[in-house]
C-alpha cells in the first residue's frame, strides 16, 4: 500500500476504517494524505457520508485524546502519477467528545481546543456523526432542508443569530433564490406569528407567496404620506438641477420646507422643529411659500431656482402615478396608523408586510425604499426605553439600493441601508439582503452580514467577492458554489453551528413567489384570443392600472 499505510485499522467501537494520515498541521488549514484504494473501496458503502469519504466537500475526523476533531476537505491532488497516494488540504471545523463505549461523536461544538500531531490517523465521518454535528440544540431554530449528502439529517438555522447579525441570500438568476427566500420567511413567520417583517419587493413576486400570511401593499393601498420624507429625500424628489445651481435650490427648499412644516398645528410646542421632523404640511403651502419668497426684493439670485422648484412640485401633485404618496388626501397626521400597518404593530397573526414597489414610478423608487428603511431605523431609535419590538427589513434586489462605488454614490437609500447594516443590531433592526450580483453591492455591506446563504453563482467576480467576505474555515465549502444544483445552498456564519451544504425543502405551490420562468416550448404552441389580450393590455397600460 502506498506511503506505507498500515493494514486497515478501525476506530475503537465505531467500525470506521482508517483512510489516511495527518501530514502537516498549520492553524486552520492542514494537509492530509489519503489511501486512494481505500477510498475506492468505501464508495459502495450504504452510508452516503462514508461513501463520500475523501471527496472535496466531505468531512473527515481525527482523534485527539478523548475528542474527535472534524475537518472539511478543501482540495485534493495525486501525490505521484503512479501511486494511490492522494494529498489533500483540510480546514478544521470543530470538535466533539468521543463516546467511550461506541467511539461515536458527542456534544459537537465549533472551534478547536487542541490540535492533533502529524501522523494522527484520519477516519471518515459517518451519518451518525453528522447527526450529532448538525443536531440543533435547544436554541430557537427553523429547519429549511436536508444536509448534503445525507437523506434524513435536517439543516437548521438559529433564528436569533440569523436575525441578530443580519443575513444575505445570494444566487444567480434561476437557482431558486426567490423560492428559498420565501421558504425561510415562511418558516420564520410560522415560528413567530407575532413578528414584524417588512419586505421590499421590486418585481411583485412575493404577493402570491404571502397572501395568506401577510399584508400586501402596492401603489393602490400603500398611502405613504409625502411629509414623512426627510430633507435629503425631499431634495432627491424636488431638486432637478446639478452643479452649483443644485446647492442654491436645496437651500431655498430647506428654508421653505421648514416654514411649511411650522404652519401645521402638530408643530406647535416643538421647540426643535427641523426640516427632517416628520410633521405634516400641505404641498400647496410649500408651493405658496416658494411663490412668496420668489416675489421678495431681498432674495439672492434670480427667480429661476424658485420656478424650478415650484414647477417640479406642481408637476408631481398633478401626476396620477405619484398619487400613492403625494395625494392631497395624505395630509392628515396618519403617522401612527401608517407605522402600525407597515410594521405589523400589532400583527393580528400576519407578521409580514410585502411592499410591492413594482408600480412605483422608477425615478422615485429609491426614495420610497429610503423612506421605508429610514422609518424602520428611526422607529427603533426613538422607541428605546419602550417594550422592544425588533423589526426585520428584507431587501430583494439589494444591489439596486446599496450599489458599489463603481456604480453610483450618494443616494439616501444607500446611506440608510449602509447605516442599518453597521448599526442596526444595536437598536433591534435586522437586515436581510437578497441579490444575484453580490459583487455590485457596496463594499463592506456583505461583511456586515453574520450569515451568508450562497446558492449557485455563475459569475467569477461574484464567487471571489463572496469568498472574500467569508471566514477562513468556510472556504472549502465555498469552492463548491459553482457546482451547486438548483435549490441547494452553502450556509455559513452565525446562523449555523458550522458551515453546511443543504438541499432546501420544497415549498407548497401556493406559498411560492410568482417568479417561474416561462416554458417557451409549450407557450409558443398556443394560439387564439390575441385580439382580446391586446385590448385588455392596452387599456391597463393607458390607465396605468393593473
Quickly list its features.
alpha/beta; 17 helices; 546 residues; Rossmann fold; Elongation Factor Tu (Ef-tu), domain 3; 3 domains; six-stranded antiparallel β-barrel; disordered N terminus; eleven-stranded mixed beta sheet
What's the CATH C level of the largest domain? Alpha Beta
Q: Total number of helical segments? A: 17
How many domains? 3
Approximate strand percentage? 15-25%
CATH homolog superfamily of the largest domain: P-loop containing nucleotide triphosphate hydrolases
Indicate the radius of gyration in whole angstroms.
Answer: 29 Å
Low-confidence stretches: 1-15
> What is the straight-line distance between the termini?
72 Å
In the sheet with the most strands, the strands line up as 9-8-18-17-16-10-15-14-11-13-12
Relative helix content: 25-40%
Main pleated sheet = 11 strands, mixed
Number of strands: 18
| Shape assignment | elongated
Give the mean pLDDT.
Answer: 82
The CATH level-2 architecture of the largest domain is identified as 3-Layer(aba) Sandwich
Structural class: alpha/beta
Fill in the CATH topology of the largest domain: Rossmann fold
Amino acid at each position: 500500500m502506498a506511503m506505507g499505510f498500515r493494514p486497515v485499522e478501525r476506530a475503537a467501537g465505531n467500525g470506521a476504517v482508517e483512510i489516511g494520515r495527518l501530514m502537516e498541521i498549520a492553524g486552520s488549514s492542514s494537509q492530509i494524505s489519503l489511501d486512494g484504494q481505500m477510498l475506492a473501496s468505501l464508495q459502495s458503502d450504504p452510508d452516503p457520508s462514508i461513501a463520500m469519504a475523501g471527496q472535496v466537500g466531505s468531512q473527515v475526523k481525527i482523534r485527539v485524546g478523548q475528542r474527535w476533531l472534524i475537518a472539511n476537505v478543501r482540495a485534493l491532488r495525486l501525490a505521484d502519477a503512479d501511486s494511490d497516494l492522494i494529498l489533500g488540504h483540510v480546514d478544521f471545523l470543530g470538535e466533539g467528545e468521543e463516546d467511550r463505549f461506541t467511539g461515536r461523536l458527542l456534544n459537537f461544538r465549533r472551534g478547536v481546543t487542541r490540535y492533533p500531531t502529524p501522523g494522527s490517523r484520519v477516519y471518515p465521518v459517518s451519518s451518525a456523526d453528522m447527526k450529532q454535528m448538525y443536531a440543533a440544540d435547544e436554541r430557537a431554530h427553523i429547519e429549511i432542508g436536508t444536509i448534503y449528502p445525507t437523506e434524513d439529517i435536517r439543516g437548521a438555522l438559529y433564528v436569533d443569530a440569523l436575525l441578530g447579525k443580519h443575513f444575505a441570500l445570494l444566487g444567480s438568476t434561476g437557482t431558486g433564490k426567490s423560492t428559498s427566500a420565501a421558504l425561510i420567511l415562511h418558516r420564520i413567520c410560522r415560528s413567530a406569528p407575532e413578528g414584524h417583517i417588512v419586505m421590499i419587493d421590486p418585481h411583485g413576486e412575493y404577493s402570491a407567496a404571502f397572501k395568506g400570511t401577510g399584508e400586501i401593499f402596492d401603489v393602490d393601498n400603500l398611502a405613504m404620506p409625502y411629509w414623512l420624507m426627510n430633507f435629503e429625500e425631499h431634495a432627491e424628489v424636488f431638486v432637478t438641477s446639478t452643479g452649483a445651481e443644485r446647492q442654491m435650490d436645496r437651500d431655498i427648499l430647506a428654508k421653505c420646507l421648514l416654514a411649511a412644516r411650522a404652519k401645521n398645528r402638530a408643530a406647535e410646542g416643538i421647540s426643535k422643529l427641523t426640516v427632517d421632523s416628520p410633521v405634516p404640511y400641505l404641498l400647496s403651502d410649500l408651493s405658496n411659500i416658494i411663490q412668496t419668497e420668489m416675489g421678495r426684493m431681498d432674495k439672492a439670485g434670480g427667480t429661476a431656482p424658485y420656478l424650478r422648484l415650484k414647477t417640479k412640485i406642481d408637476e408631481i401633485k398633478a401626476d396620477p402615478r405619484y398619487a400613492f404618496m403625494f395625494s392631497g388626501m395624505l395630509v392628515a397626521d396618519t403617522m401612527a396608523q401608517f407605522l402600525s400597518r407597515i410594521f405589523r404593530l400589532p400583527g393580528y397573526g400576519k407578521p409580514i408586510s410585502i411592499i410591492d414597489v413594482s408600480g412605483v414610478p422608477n425615478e422615485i423608487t429609491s426614495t420610497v425604499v429610503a423612506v421605508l428603511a429610514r422609518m424602520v431605523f428611526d422607529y427603533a431609535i426613538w422607541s428605546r426605553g419602550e417594550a422592544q419590538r425588533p423589526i426585520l427589513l428584507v431587501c430583494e434586489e439589494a444591489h439596486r439600493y446599496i450599489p458599489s462605488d463603481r456604480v453610483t454614490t450618494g443616494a439616501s437609500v444607500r446611506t440608510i441601508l449602509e447605516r442599518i447594516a453597521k448599526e442596526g443590531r444595536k437598536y433591534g433592526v435586522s437586515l436581510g439582503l437578497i441579490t444575484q450580483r453580490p459583487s455590485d453591492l457596496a463594499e463592506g455591506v456583505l461583511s456586515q452580514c453574520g450569515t451568508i446563504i450562497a446558492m449557485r453563482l455563475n459569475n467569477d467576480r461574484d464567487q471571489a467577492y463572496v469568498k472574500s467576505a467569508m471566514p477562513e474555515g468556510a472556504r472549502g465549502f465555498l469552492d463548491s458554489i459553482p457546482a451547486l444544483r438548483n435549490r441547494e445552498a452553502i450556509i455559513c456564519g452565525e446562523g449555523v453551528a458550522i458551515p453546511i451544504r443543504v438541499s432546501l425543502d420544497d415549498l407548497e405551490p401556493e406559498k411560492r413567489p410568482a417568479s417561474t420562468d416561462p416554458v417557451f416550448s409549450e407557450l409558443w404552441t398556443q394560439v387564439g384570443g390575441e385580439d382580446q389580450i391586446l385590448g385588455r393590455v392596452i387599456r391597463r397600460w393607458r390607465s396605468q392600472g393593473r
